[in-house]
Amino acid sequence: MAAITAADVNKLRTMTGAGMMDCKKALTEAEGDFEAARDILRKQGQKIADKRAENETSEGFVAVAVSEDGTNGKLVALACETESVAKVANFRELVQRILDAAVRTNAATKEDLLATKEEDGLTIQEHITDLMGKIGEKLDLTYATLSAEKVASYIHSDSKKGVLVGLKNVGGADTAAVGRDVAMQIVAMKPVAVDKDGVDSSITEREIEIGKEQARAEGKPEAMLEKIAQGKLNKFYKENTLLNQEFVKDNSLTIAQLLDKTSKGMTVTDFKRVAIGA
Question: Which residues are in the Translation elongation factor EFTs/EF1B dimerisation domain (predicted)?
């Protein structure tokens, strides 16, 4: 077997970004075959991914891109295990690579995005697995895309929370400020839906049952339980659906009123909220 030189190790390191010792071991195992060594490093990443599958990923980085015409947004969140990894250059570079791939391919789902092949012949999933091998941590991708008449976005200062929000009936209004305000509201107040019609029926049923149990525990008559529970459900809608929430910057307005005040008839069609570690 040919001797593995420092130049060989450095070449593989440049090709893969893996550590020098890992590159030397891979080249030695592959008997100097660079492609086989790359496969060995990739398998190492998969082993780490399998071993750490149950680990919590509470750190990471969120990135967002909105199309030039403002009608489509892409949001990616790559989660890792430790804060230090979230700050290293190759982690941030991978997040940008994933976001660029989402924009380039207009990926409809996370599965489509993970299957996207890059110029180097590797898929996004393989790039994620490769980085797991280099850093020794579990990585987990979340992806969201949203189209609307106008899409606004926001990333929180910790870079771990992000929002896309779709607006319609914007008229001639400059939506930059109000769109950011609504997106910030979504990050802060965590609405479960745009309005009550968007609340999942299982949530509605659960809230009604909770309301009945609370009223029953307070000694209210059985005949009144349904009415009391409906009142509590309406309070739930007010506090947990976006358009009915009080605007955090001015609680004299609901979000619906804020939008209508900005441009008559403006409203939210949908939103996507992503939060790492929350």
Answer: 74-277
